[in-house]
Amino acid sequence: MAIELSNLMERSLSMLSSDHKSVVSMNLFVALLCACIVIGHLLEENRWMNESITALIIGLCTGIVILLTTNGTSSHVLMFSEDLFFIYLLPPIIFNAGFQVKKKQFFRNFMTIMLFGAVGTLISFVIISAGAVHFFKQMNIGTLKIGDYLAIGAIFAATDSVCTLQVLNQDETPLLYSLVFGEGVVNDATSVVLFNAIQSFDLSHINLSIALKFVGSFFYLFIASTMLGVIAGLLSAFIIKKLYMGRHSTDREVALMILMAYLSYMLAELFYLSGILTVFFCGIVMSHYTWHNVTESSRVTTKHAFATLSFVAEIFIFLYVGMDALDIEKWRVVRDSPGKSVGVSAILLGLVLLGRAAFVLPLSFLSNLTKKSSHEKIGLKQQLTIWWAGLMRGAVSMALAYKQVRC
Amino acid sequence: MAIELSNLMERSLSMLSSDHKSVVSMNLFVALLCACIVIGHLLEENRWMNESITALIIGLCTGIVILLTTNGTSSHVLMFSEDLFFIYLLPPIIFNAGFQVKKKQFFRNFMTIMLFGAVGTLISFVIISAGAVHFFKQMNIGTLKIGDYLAIGAIFAATDSVCTLQVLNQDETPLLYSLVFGEGVVNDATSVVLFNAIQSFDLSHINLSIALKFVGSFFYLFIASTMLGVIAGLLSAFIIKKLYMGRHSTDREVALMILMAYLSYMLAELFYLSGILTVFFCGIVMSHYTWHNVTESSRVTTKHAFATLSFVAEIFIFLYVGMDALDIEKWRVVRDSPGKSVGVSAILLGLVLLGRAAFVLPLSFLSNLTKKSSHEKIGLKQQLTIWWAGLMRGAVSMALAYKQVRC
């Protein structure tokens, strides 16, 4: 009887502590988010700092503290999953970017953006893949199949739309912002098409019909994703206007806008389309139509609520990346063969730099040919900024890499 | 080689489909939420319907459809966990209730609310426990220990604060609303204290020192939870006022308010306090102090964003409850011994009715003795409404029951 009871107590205690551990880490994470906001605000005047860098540094420091207190077994408090990122954090960021983007500037440069996002990504992909084949074969790092080289190209051709938002300011440099961010959004669609194509097509003998299929599937994905976003946006505008939702309550309008936008993203994922592209266009349509059909207080609420959601999601990501930088497991492989790791990283970095330069400069030249007024043309300084601002490789690359490892 | 490849393909396909299944259910759930809002809006004029009932009915219908399409194996699309409820859905609902509550009305009736929430819950607990001991012993339903009977009392003495919000309207019946909802919030603290006391104290021989300990731990829990909520609210007001957050951006103010409120709830859970009580008082303090220190657009945003969050969380819960009503597994035990199940349910229902009547009527009488003006007194009709409105047993009871089963 006594043993039974103590057994029972033990079980309930262990249950409690496992629940409690997740409560502890939630507390720590929310407290760190608060700290990032306050410190980021205090450092506002400093031109080298912003919330994201603060979050990165705080994450790094927390990682060190956790590493020391757990005797070097782990540096994070939360298990970060792809799902968490793609289902909860990414949609509000991209939706808000579409919602707040300067539409006039964006659509005026639409052709250039498409050129950069579609053709540019392809050029980048070809150069990185070819470079990887050329250099890695001499380095003796195990045998890789042709599909693996192409996957490397696709992974490193995917830029990070979230980081881009941090580098450029929409109000100060509207042209550059719309070009680089727009490219990032279209790039996502291209990367997904590329990656799926690599996994499903037989790539050992590429011929015309496969190339045509490839182009066709890009256009299908691009048009279908865009249409889905536009339809979701228009539908929300129609429902809110027709049913005169604001008559009874503001909350219903706001809730419906958020849910419809989220639904468009999830539907895109359901049909294997590009959710980023869909929710981006949904944001554009909602800010252009739905937003003008809601009550005044809904307008203020949606504008700030979406921005806040996106803001918190961004800080969350950077905080996590800071903690993740110290992950012992990930550094172990580097310790085993430091020379090779540095070599591979350097080659990939060089290829990414080269691959981006190889399309920004010629495509800017092409785009400039179509523009008449000189202030619409992309100058050399701006071309260099575009080249530099889009260099970051972020969450989409990471997710594609995980996918490749799992297969 | 060919086998390896097909193996690989199979694995990646099964991976994909398991991921895809969760995407499908997310889509269905978000679409149903949208449908609830639109249909709830269309039925606004109907006095028998509101969003919650719509959500319940839609959930029920969806459950039937899923039950038929899966050949009767399952009726939900999402696995509902205690965590989902207590970590994500409950905090925004209770926080918003505190944020929007009419403070004057609430604090004027503070003593009555405390009387109902603390003493009333105790009376209810004693009656239900004693009744369970008396009736269940004659019914031959297996041997239960004294601790089990007390746990039954504690579980069924916990009312549901969320359901209460649906029954009464703050604008139409402010006195009743503040009494019943306030009681629900204090009731949560009492239930948690009761339940923890049952699990940790030796209850076979109750004496004065245990009773004193019990009263002491109630006051500790009540005061500590309230203080935590008040401190979190004041701290947010202080930070936002001192640092003049609104100068740079509205988003930071809104983000900080949400995060601080959430942090107060999680801290309460961390220290085994009553999170509901904490976040409720945090909401009251934030609406009284913080809200007046933020910019005009933050005021509009927070007011509507919190209401929207709470609104969506409530619909979510009712939608799920509708689906859950058809859970085959839960009905199986009823089919095995229908007579006994109906008997136990009827006895418990009777005890809950009796236990509530046994404190609402005498405590209202006591409370009326202290009031001078006749319109502040609680009339018999109002007493009956209080008795009726607080009868619902909801998520807190369910969570406590799960806890008891797991131990």
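qc> Chain B touches chain A through 55 residues (CB under 8 Å).
qc> done
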